[in-house]
Write a structure and sequence with these properties.
The complex is a heterodimer. By secondary structure, chain A is an all-alpha fold. Chain A has two domains: 101 residues, Orthogonal Bundle (Rna Polymerase Sigma Factor, Chain: A); 72 residues, Orthogonal Bundle (Arc Repressor Mutant, subunit A), CATH 1.10.10.10. Helix content of chain A is 73%, strand content 0%. In chain A, helix 1 crosses helix 2 and helix 7 crosses helix 9. The radius of gyration of chain A is 28 Å and the shape is rod-shaped. Chain B is mainly α. Chain B has one domain. Chain B is built from nine helices and no strands. The longest helix of chain B is centred in the N-terminal third of the chain and has 27 residues. The radius of gyration of chain B is 20 Å and the shape is elongated. The chains are: A mainly alpha, B mainly alpha. At the A-B interface, helix 2, helix 3 and helix 4 of A face helix 1 and helix 2 of B.
Chain lengths: 187, 213
């Protein structure tokens, strides 16, 4: 951390003296640090993050005289980045313009909790025989009708219904609390 | 535009820059701003007739010390607020201390007076025009100060505008002392402070728009 500070600070000092090569290295490295900084804080179009990286680099360039050499360089640079981020969020708040095609992405399941639940579910279902598992996934998770799913996997509708029922029963037996094993939510 | 191309463009033809040069630019703008205010005091308000003898006494300089100290505090605050990540507390403490000292002096002065003299000491002969005059003189100097301050990078535009307003008002009020013959601490603590506060408030409003970057 302090190594990075010392390194960036020396580049900054040389840049302020007019060393264009050092300045190019500094901006390139700052770009590398800023990209994840903005990506972590924005949940939207990744091109927004890249725009902010560019805006911050321009500000670092244009306002470089406002860095006081007695101040840590990174504190200054990230204060500039935060200012640009807040400015961006404020502007976005004023005109919330997410194109409709992106709405799905906004509501898409990408939270940590969701991922964990999905993984648990996968593990449960893996206890079932593969053919039974594919059927239950189609009906219970993908929302196909029993008839459609039966058709897809070569079951008769009646056989599919039986298979689904058996699957639910064996999963319930496996995971339901011991004292009320009969409480099956068949909705 | 790709980021690499942007970096390439930014790092060709790089003129040297420094924090010290930025401070110098701010200070240098005070010379024409001060000259402008001085001319306005001379032509519009007129210098106080007893200026020469007054300058030999302590009161004239005590007034100037108060307004100049607030101006210096304003400059310091402006320089800190204009630098991302810098600590703005020390100048605020200086400003608070300056005002507290003068307020305490004014109260002490008033308590030492017999009751009927207190109100005239606060009101002087020019209570009604003092604050507006200081405000008008600040308005004259403000464009130069705000223009020079645009080189800064304030992350809190309104507060920074207030600081720039205080710097402007400190300059204006100090030079207003060349016109104003009032001599009580109470008058200065109330009316000078009020005039400067008006300039600070106006500065905050201007800062909101002037200090976008």
């Amino acid at each position: 951390m302090t190594d990075r500070e010392a390194h960036l600070k020396s580049l900054m000092m040389r840049g302020l003296d007019g060393d264009a090569a050092a300045w190019r290295v500094l901006l390139t490295e700052m770009g590398g640090h800023l990209r994840p900084f903005f990506a972590r804080r924005l949940f939207g179009d990744p091109s927004d993050a890249e725009d902010l990286v560019q805006e911050t680099l321009i500000a670092i360039h244009a306002k470089r005289a406002t860095w006081d050499p007695r101040q840590p360089f990174t504190a200054w640079a990230y204060a500039v980045a935060r200012h640009k981020l807040i400015d961006h969020l404020r502007r976005q708040g004023r005109r919330p313009t997410h194109p409709l095609e992106e709405a799905a992405e906004l509501f898409a399941d990408h939270t940590v909790e969701d991922g964990a639940a999905r993984w648990d579910l996968g593990r449960c279902l893996s206890l079932l025989p593969p053919r039974q598992r594919r059927l239950i996934e189609d009906v219970r998770l993908r929302g196909l009708s029993v008839a459609e799913a039966a058709d897809r996997h070569g079951y008769s509708v009646a056989a599919a219904k039986v298979s689904l029922h058996r699957s639910m029963k064996s999963l319930t037996a496996k995971f339901a609390p011991a004292n009320d094993g009969g409480a099956v939510h068949e909705d | 535009m790709k980021t690499d191309d942007l970096i390439q463009a930014l790092s060709t033809d790089l003129p040297p820059a420094s924090s010290r040069r930025l401070d110098r630019r701010l200070l240098l703008c005070l010379i024409p701003a001060g000259a402008l205010v001085l001319v306005a005091v001379g032509l519009w308000l007129g210098f106080r007739p007893d200026l020469m003898p007054a300058m030999r006494g302590p009161t004239f300089w005590a007034k100037a010390a108060y307004t100049a100290a607030l101006g210096v505090g304003g400059f310091w605050l402006l320089a800190r607020l204009g630098r991302p990540g810098a600590d703005a507390r020390p100048p605020l403490i200086l400003l608070g201390a300056t005002f507290s000292i003068v307020a305490a002096m004014a109260i002490q002065e008033l308590f030492a007076m017999p009751m009927p003299e207190r109100m005239p000491a606060v009101m002087g002969d020019s209570a009604r025009v003092c604050a507006p005059n200081i405000f008008m003189l600040s308005v004259l100097a403000a464009p130069l100060v705000f223009w020079a301050s645009r080189a800064l990078a304030p992350t809190r535009p309104m507060l920074t505008g207030a600081a720039a307003g205080l710097l402007t008002a400190g300059l204006a009020a100090t030079l207003y002392g060349l016109h104003c013959p009032e001599h009580t601490a109470a008058f200065v603590a109330v009316w000078y402070t009020l005039g400067m506060a008006l300039a600070v408030a106006a500065g905050a409003l201007i800062g909101r728009f002037a200090f976008r970057w």
